[in-house]
Write a structure and sequence with these properties.
- This protein is an alpha/beta fold.
- The chain has one domain: 3-Layer(aba) Sandwich (Rossmann fold).
- Helix content is 40%, strand content 21%.
- It has a five-stranded parallel beta sheet, sandwiched between helices.
- Strand 3, helix 3 and strand 4 form a beta-alpha-beta unit.
- The longest helix has 13 residues.
- The protein is globular, with a radius of gyration of 13 Å.
- This is Response regulator.
- One of its GO terms (molecular function) is phosphorelay response regulator activity.
- One of its GO terms (cellular component) is cytosol.
- InterPro entries: CheY-like_superfamily (IPR011006), Sig_transdc_resp-reg_receiver (IPR001789), WalR-like (IPR039420).
């Protein structure tokens, strides 16, 4: 199983990569949704940590594309947006788990377990 990290903030992506590696997962990092969709080989067993505020294609658009696949991976949204901004983004994806930035190691470990 791969944990795909789709995050444009390099510091956040690096921290997630390190923590997930220490937790025994195989992480892969992508800086935007377009690169992730073009380059990643994603299986239903994988997890996608998806920043909702990506440049270019939004995290919500990436989630819709992933959810339309026959064998969609588990998606966990991550965001530092305000509650009002999150409500707008998540209204079409009400069942998607959300982790708020700044992320704690405990919350991350629990979400991917």
């Amino acid at each position: 199983m791969i944990v795909h990290i789709v995050e444009d903030d390099r510091a956040v992506a690096d921290a997630l990569y390190i923590v997930l590696g220490e937790l025994g997962y195989l992480p892969a990092v992508y800086s935007d949704g377009e690169t992730f969709l073009a380059e990643a080989t994603v299986s239903a067993k994988d997890i996608v940590l998806l920043d909702l505020g990506l440049p270019g294609m939004s995290g919500v658009d990436v989630a819709h594309q992933l959810n339309s696949r026959a064998s969609a991976p588990r998606i966990i949204a991550i965001s530092g947006k305000t509650r009002a901004g999150l409500n707008r983004h998540l209204r079409d994806l009400p069942d998607m788990p959300l982790l708020r930035k700044p992320l704690s190691m405990e919350a991350l470990a629990e979400a991917v377990a």
